[in-house]
Amino acid sequence: MLKYFVAACMLVAPTTTVADEFGSWDGVHLGLKGGLGSISGKDSLGNTRSLESGIGGAFAGYTVSIDQFVFGVEADVTASNFTAVSSSGFTRSHAKWSATSTVRVGYDAGNFLPYLSAGVGLAGYEVRRFDDGQKASNTHVGFAVGGGLETKLTDNVTARVDYKHLKMSKEEYDFNGYPPFSIEGHQNQVSLGIAYKF
């Protein structure tokens, strides 16, 4: 996943210059993003799994500058399609969405903004049995950390490459007639985004 982040940074960085050609980073922003995600998890039955999926979503936040430092809050929601069938062939697992709420801290370097982020993440996960159609779902809660590079395209439009790591808490899944089991794991997301600042 790191190689995708580095490659995306190289796409964004050439459009930046040290001189500040446009306005400040301050204000409310709304944006769209797309990229690639990976998920690694394990359950209490001894199974492990690693998957990849395309991702897409939206984000919104508020940013304020104090001298050369830029502070902000941001929330996002991401759709995904992580799908796997168990080695026994009895169940299918599906992770369809995640969301984060983070604080961002960056450094104003003219037309570009390197930043770090940290906060709380949520991830939805579902397991379905093929034989009787039973399904169980949970929302896994954990920390979210990351970073990225943002560049100004105009006074009101910015582009970014963003990386996030989400920890998925251990949650229990229970089916009628079967012993319960737990699942835990983590996600990594690399995305390119474009935002409009009001």
Write up what this structure looks like.
The protein has 198 residues and is mostly beta strands. It has one domain: Porin. It is built from one helix and eight strands. The protein has one helix at 2-12; strands at residues 27-43, 48-66, 69-85, 91-107, 112-129, 135-152, 157-173, 181-197. An eight-stranded antiparallel beta barrel has the order 1-2-3-4-5-6-7-8. Strand 7 (157-173) and strand 8 (181-197) form a beta hairpin. It is elongated.
CATH fold descriptor: Porin
Q: What structural class is derived from the secondary structure elements? A: mainly beta
Second-tier CATH architecture: Beta Barrel
The percentage helix is under 10%
Q: How would you state the average pLDDT, rounded?
A: 90
Radius of gyration using CA atoms only: 19 Å
Q: Give the tally of β-strands.
A: 8
Question: What is the CATH domain class?
Answer: Mainly Beta
Characteristic terms for this protein:
6% helix, 8 strands, eight-stranded antiparallel barrel, mainly beta, elongated, Porin, 198 residues
